[in-house]
């Protein structure tokens, strides 16, 4: 049975484009499904959950699209400045960051802002939510890497870095994270909060994505896409993906292989088939589409399986209890359980007494 998926991309031309992918044939094809001109400035970020697609822009708004009903769902107006980053946590929450230094936590049930955190003195460049939903990382133009306790919305740890980092990402298992400064990636260990390895890319890095807990796909200001083994701290594969620089990468799993999706300034979105074996071989081109737009960002919308890794921690991931113990050992933060921001609103609400009992049992 063919997979249902759609390629969503934002552009300098203020337009969001969607392409429905036909996976029935050996060579995949992507047919134009929609174009939407809801923004009044270039699009800076895009994210997808099982139901919704969101886009952020220099016009300070976040536009919502309900992919199930195929309708525009309105706009979120909380940021004062460019919306720089967007990330869903499962199906229940969206986090957004902006040039105003704010990180906002949104409920996808009523699309209300549950919490607005003044995260950085300058811009928020990037954010990433831990697979457990208990922590988030942000980097900003104030040259800091900040860890946020999403249980109470407070700063857990601040690390000064010498330069402005522009990307931060948790690994799928949540035991490490990567911070990108220009052409350099620093790999951090969660337990020690220290750098365990550093890898340099030949060009400035524009986008990264973990394919599994060790393999990272890296795109930069050239036409080459590279694969890095974060455990061995070395490049393991590279291939020419486009004619000009690659702006964004995303990925999803099929039955027995990974699909890497790349978007470039040349207007093309390409899908690459990659087998995640011990000895990685260069991926083969599954299909491509020419959007004729100057692309800025990319996300894959797949209603069933693509988002499952963010819904539940992968096998061997740090549980919230273990996470609290590890952080307590570090004597940098105490995890509180009084107020949970990222509660799963997709589940039916229990009576207050039941919730209190559950919290006390977890303690």
From TrEMBL:
Keyword Repeat (UniProt): yes
SMART domains named among the record's database cross-references: WD40
Pfam families: WD40
A GO-annotated cellular component: nucleolus
Record's keyword terms, sorted: Nucleus, Repeat, Ribosome biogenesis, Signal transduction inhibitor, WD repeat
WD repeat ranges per the UniProt record: 36-68, 76-116, 117-158
Location(s) in or outside the cell: Nucleus, Nucleolus
InterPro entries the UniProt entry points to: PAK1-Kinase_Regulator, WD40/YVTN_repeat-like_dom_sf, WD40_repeat_CS, WD40_repeat_dom_sf, WD40_rpt
Chain's role: Negatively regulates the PAK1 kinase. PAK1 is a member of the PAK kinase family, which has been shown to play a positive role in the regulation of signaling pathways involving MAPK8 and RELA. PAK1 exists as an inactive homodimer, which is activated by binding of small GTPases such as CDC42 to an N-terminal regulatory domain. PAK1IP1 also binds to the N-terminus of PAK1, and inhibits the specific activation of PAK1 by CDC42. May be involved in ribosomal large subunit assembly.
Protein name: PAK1 interacting protein 1
Species assigned in the record: Labrus bergylta (ballan wrasse)
């Amino acid at each position: 049975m063919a997979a249902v998926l759609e390629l969503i991309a934002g552009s300098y031309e203020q337009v969001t484009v969607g392409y429905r992918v036909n996976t029935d044939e050996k060579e995949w094809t992507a047919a134009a499904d929609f174009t939407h001109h809801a923004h009044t400035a270039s699009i800076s970020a895009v994210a997808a959950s099982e139901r919704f697609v969101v886009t952020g822009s220099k016009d300070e708004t976040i536009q919502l699209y309900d992919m199930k009903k195929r309708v525009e769902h309105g706009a979120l107006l909380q940021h004062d400045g460019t919306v720089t980053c967007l990330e869903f946590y499962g199906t229940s929450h969206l986090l957004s960051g902006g040039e105003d230094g704010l990180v906002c936590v949104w409920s996808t049930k009523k699309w209300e802002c549950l919490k607005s955190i003044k995260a950085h003195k300058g811009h928020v460049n990037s954010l990433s939510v831990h697979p457990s939903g208990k922590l988030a990382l942000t980097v900003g133009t104030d040259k800091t890497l900040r860890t946020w306790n999403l249980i109470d919305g407070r700063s857990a740890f601040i690390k000064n870095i010498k330069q402005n980092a522009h990307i931060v990402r948790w690994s799928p298992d949540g035991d490490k994270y990567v911070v990108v400064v220009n052409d350099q990636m620093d790999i951090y260990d969660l337990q020690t909060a220290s750098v365990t390895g550093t890898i340099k890319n030949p060009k400035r890095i524009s986008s990264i994505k973990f394919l599994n807990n060790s393999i990272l796909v890296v795109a930069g200001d050239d036409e080459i896409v590279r694969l890095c083994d974060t455990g061995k701290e070395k490049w393991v594969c590279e291939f020419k993906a486009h004619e000009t620089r690659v702006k964004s990468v995303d990925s999803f799993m099929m039955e027995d292989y990974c699909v890497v999706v790349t978007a470039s300034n040349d207007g093309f979105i390409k899908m690459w088939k990659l087998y995640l074996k011990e000895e990685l071989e260069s991926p083969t081109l599954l299909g491509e589409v020419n959007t004729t737009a100057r692309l800025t960002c990319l996300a894959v919308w797949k209603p069933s399986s693509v988002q499952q890794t963010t819904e539940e921690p992968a096998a061997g991931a740090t549980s919230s209890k273990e996470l609290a113990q590890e952080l307590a050992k570090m004597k940098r933060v105490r995890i509180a359980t009084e107020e949970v921001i990222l509660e799963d609103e997709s589940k039916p609400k229990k009576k207050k007494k039941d919730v209190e009992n559950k919290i006390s049992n977890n303690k």
